[in-house]
Amino acid sequence: MVRCAIYTRKSTEEGLEQAFNSLDAQREACAAYIRSQQHEGWQELSNRYDDGGFSGGSMERPALASLLDDIRAGRIDTVVVYKVDRLTRSLADFAKIVELFEGQGVSFVSVTQQFNTTTSMGRLTLNVLLSFAQFEREVTAERIRDKIAASRKKGMWMGGGVPVGYRAEERQLVVDEDQAQLVGRIFDLYLELGSVRAVQQVLDAEGIRTPRRTSKAGRNHGGRPFSRGNLYSILGNPVYIGRVRHRGEVFDGRHEAIIDRETWTRVQKQLAHQARRKRDTGGGASQHLFAGLLFDEEGAPLYATQASKQGRRYRYYTSKALVEGREDAAGPGKGWRITGPAFEKLVVEQLQALLRDPIRLMDLLEDNTRDNTRLADLIDRAAEMADELCSEQAGSDGDLLRRLVRRIELRDGILGLALDRGTLDEQDGPGQEELSIELPVRVARRGVESRIVLSGENTYAGTPDAALVRLITRAHRWNNMLATGEAGSLQELSREAGIDRSEIGRVLQLAYLAPDITEAILDGRQPSELTAHRLKRMAGLPLDWAEQRKALGFA
């Protein structure tokens, strides 16, 4: 007997209240296919695995989780879906799912595309289809961002976190008089006191809190003390002079200003002067960025320490036992003394890469964010934050980093980052939900000094190899030309590209790389010995993904 589980999914909740909906239609088609295979011993399981209102870009789906748990428990032999993108629309997630299927001896069948993963041809076909699904998803994301950008250039308010001092009514910002007075007072206090920290202390002493709001999802926000991050965001937001900001540019808005231009200009000059003064005096971001945020595998904090040698000062993050000179208490190979600048550079680069990667950012946020306008706003804000990190200003004294990063943990082979969702989403405000990221690392030790080095396949993009990326792009473009009939043959492709036919053939095979290998190359995470020259000269690349990983050094 072949035990068959049917999985169905629909991205939105629209229509699910109907007596017969999209999930039912998918299930009926799958059930009919299973009945057609009864002579092979196929039987439909009674358990339902239905995800209504969940995107295929994320693995965070209750029915999918239940399905994978049952597969691990050995209760399922075959997974049947209506279309492959019902299971997932992410190449990276698909690679993980197929790896689990292969490990448990489970096959995968799409009834409308009629293939399964028990054959090399089935895996090859899946790879092609998932490539197009991923492409469609990326195009959709770009289309959303372009639409938002065009609207914002016209000065329209397109959603996202509503700034303090306003409320949103029918896609328009309307002044909230009570909050507007608070905004005006914050600007006046800053000009009077000359310090964001001093403004924060005054507001705290008076018991003034961030405005309380309820999101469309029913979550309550605000009602918290103003952080310096909140205040920097308010003081630097051109929305208060009647303008809107989008991807580093500022456009005239359609809403009423709260602050006059003269006050705004004076505040911006004072903010810029403070930032220059901190850099010139060696303060701010030149000091320990993650003091109080870094913890070891036992939850103990690492302390910010310094040492001098031959007139130079060196910064470290150090375990308590080593700070107190108790190396014996730490144990051999235990305890941390991490070089500060190198570690900070590694973390900041990974954060910048994440913030600039809309697809991964969408996957990270999509569990609780289904509104396209809101999602586009988050993506744009993240890109601006990446630029701010790159500028080395990071607000003031590393303020942006300390708002974004709640906690950093060093565990067995893992660097864990807990990020503050509210820093990405101004509507939530800091101190709300956490976003967790885990980066595989290895530790290089020299005496008691340690260096953290990224490893594995889940790190974020460093600097991709441009030659490799061009090679992969060319392979997919040529393969698409053949598939759509734009090019009728290899000979025609050879004439058009001005490249020998044999080289065309060698490049084309790269369109059928395993999804995780392709993604690693695009992110710059391939083995150092894998060059474009080596990849292009490989003859007879295996169709089996596991064999590909071995051949290319990913295993």
Your description of this structure?
This protein has 555 residues and is of the alpha/beta class. Strands 1, 2, 3, 4, 5 and 6 form a six-stranded mixed sheet that branches. A five-stranded mixed sheet has the order 13-17-18-19-20. Helix 12 (340-355) packs antiparallel against helix 14 and helix 14 packs across helix 15. It starts with a strand and ends with a helix.
Task: Enumerate the spans where pLDDT stays under 50 for 5 or more consecutive residues.
Answer: 392-396, 427-432
- Helical amount among residues, as a percent range? 40-55%
Mean pLDDT: 75
Q: What kind of sheet is the major sheet?
A: 6 strands, mixed
Estimate the strand proportion: 15-25%
> Count of DSSP helices?
22
**SSE class:** alpha/beta
What's the total number of strands?
20
Shape: globular
Q: Radius of gyration in whole Å, from Cα?
A: 27 Å
Distance between the termini: 34 Å
Keywords:
six-stranded mixed beta sheet; single chain; 555 residues; alpha/beta; five-stranded mixed beta sheet
Q: What is the topology?
A:
Blueprint lengths: L1 E9 L11 H15 L5 E3 L4 E4 L9 H11 L5 E4 L2 H4 L3 H14 L2 E4 L4 E2 L3 H34 L12 E4 L2 E4 L1 H17 L2 H10 L7 E2 L5 E2 L6 H8 L7 E4 L2 E4 L8 H20 L13 E2 L6 E8 L2 E8 H4 L3 H4 L6 E3 H16 L2 H8 L6 H19 L3 H11 E7 L2 E7 H4 L9 E13 L2 E6 L11 H19 L5 H8 L3 H8 L6 H9 L8 H6 L7 H8 L3
Parallel strand pairs: 1-2, 1-3, 1-4, 4-5, 13-17
Antiparallel strand pairs: 5-6, 7-8, 9-10, 11-12, 14-15, 15-16, 17-18, 18-19, 19-20
